[in-house]
Amino acid sequence: MTRKERLTRTLEGKPVDRPPVCFYEINGYSQNPDDPDEYNIYNDPSWRPLLDLAAAKSDRTVLCYPDFRRAESSDTNRSVSTFTDTRGRRHTVEEIQTPKGPLTRHLQRDKDIDTTWETEHLLKTMEDAEAYLSIPDGEQSGELDISGVLRCEEALGETGIVCIDTSDALDCVWPLFSMADYLVFAMTERELFTEMLERAQRKLLARIRAVSEALPGRLFRIYGPEIASPPYLPPELFREYVVKYDTELIRLIHKSGGYARIHCHGNLSRIMDDIAGMGADATDPIEPPPQGDVSLRYIREKYGKRLVLFGNIELSDIENLETPAFTETVKRTLEEGMSGEGRGFVLMPSASPIGRKLSARTMRHYEIMAELAEKAVY
Prior knowledge:
- The chain is of the alpha/beta class.
- It has 2 domains: 3-70 and 139-375, TIM Barrel (Alpha-Beta Barrel), CATH 3.20.20; 73-122.
- Helix content is 40%, strand content 20%.
- A 7-stranded parallel sheet has the order 1-8-9-10-11-12-13. Strands 3-4-5-6 form a 4-stranded antiparallel sheet.
- Helix 8 links the parallel strand 9 (219-223) and strand 10 (259-263).
- 37% of the residues are buried.
């Protein structure tokens, strides 16, 4: 069975020879160790063995998204400037002119950490939120370019599949605020927050419709729900800010024969009925306690017939556990993920390393995941 067949049959709920093993973002395709950019952590020699292992052994599920080519609305004046400070950190400052005044945000990127920090968020006050909403909607989609997705599929061949990566309405809105401001705003300004979600949803529906029709039958990952999960927000607001909108996205994806995977870190016990009830086909990363609040075995027993389960290996365990303990963790995860009857299970980490130097221990633990998944038999 090829890796593409294994993943496809897993999504379809059909028998496979063994559970797939995916290294999440690490796939040996998206990361380029030959790119000399000083902000590319993957050009450090310590990364190449893992990238080679991902390409050769993992059931690759490559996250990607088609491009939409369109000019910004003529009513919006957006400017971006960049500079590098004396410590080698790259800064990006964005300014948007709105009918009610300017909005600014500030991003920062370090050379040795593969993430971007937002040190100033776009919306800081109620007036900022109203200014943001004063920007004309403009076009909702634009000219769709799927060539990058098709190139990825051609390069993967029988080694894996693409996974169309998309935010939901909540993830379009909450990052406009700092985390603290978002939580206060979502709890106390529900009418205005909903107006922002509705605006984001209109654009998302147009885009998901276009993408799913142009690329039917693909797997989609929808991210954003976790930021409304307990303890951040109560379950009733999860339903109001996530279920209402993501259910519409899932229906569009299903209409073209695609599959929808809900990405949700953290505590699931009080929202899993909602995730399953939206009609999702899969969920990830199902974090074990203490990062989450339910076991993989429990999720498999209660929801496994409806959902393909991705994950349950914590990145912190990959990086920090002693190798014997990590080996037992993977064995237990495979046993729980394959227990009883279920639609399917994919062994996968909750996240990926972001540092320039990959330790020998971390490398060995990825090898163990691949080795043990290959030996597992349903």
